Amino acid sequence: MKIKLSFILLMTSFLAFLVKAQEAKSDFKANGKPIITIFSDFHTGFGTVADETGFGLERAYLGYQYAFSPNWSGKVIFDMGSSNLAGSSLERIAYVKNAMLSWEKGDFSLDAGLIGLKQFKVQEKFWGYRYILKSFHDIYGYGTTADAGLSVEYRINDLLSADVTITNGEGYKKLNTDKYFRYGGGLRITPIKELSFRLYYDRHDKDPNNLSHDKSKQITSFFAGYKNEAFSLGAEYVHMYHAQFRDDTNQYGFSAYTTVRLPKDFQLFGRWDYAASNKDYSDLLNTWNPKDEQMLVLGLQYSITKNIKLAPNLRMITPKNGSSLYYATVNLYLSL
Question: Does domain 5-20+30-260+270-290 correspond to CATH entry 3.40.50.2000?
């Protein structure tokens, strides 16, 4: 049976109504606020990519979040991004990124609808520069940031928290086209305040009616990070088995990143990605095209205010079968 977004929203609204009477005596006042976030940049390439120069608007998030009660809240966010449609004259397309209801009670939380996923949320937050560069998982096709489904998280104690998610598996840009779901579960371990680990596993069921599917897609990942007031250092490894629902398509790689906090609202940051697969590039008939490459990013961020950040940075991208590409970029983060 398909997960229907409208059904999920209806059921969670009904649950909110059931607990409303219990919360009526609270002094809480319902409130909401708009969400406006912009990722912009100026970039220029060198050498073979010297013509890739200009101003860019990678993302514009527009939305609204509302707290109905101390436990219930809702959020809708539109994502304005590049169309990526070959031959299209459309420069930007708006997607519904999130349309969800959330319930929180003590150490337990539940999200339902078109939700933000937890697959690499910890890593993305630890990296801290999403407006400059997406998470490793996101760039190299290991998962999406949102999908239609349900997610629960429970903080067991100061040491351990767990989360479980079930989604359609198509991401937030596509409608559900089958009855085969994607299941994920993660554990976060925090032995001390500064140190954290995360283990994650998920499985996307194959479609037995699709002749090109012979295996279910599976992902395992591990993250470790240390952060204090002076610096942070994190690293993750991820492996995707049967990337194309076939036995002979596997992807893997790792990412390491660091931040050094400098005086007067400056931060020095760096990141190195290594992405690989078992693809045989001599097979010209193979339509599977993973990004097998290494990428190095070095930059300096200046926090003008809490909601405005500027980050000049240098990037080197080295494809598996190609020459290195060099870019200089100045990224802007604006949140209202």
Answer: no
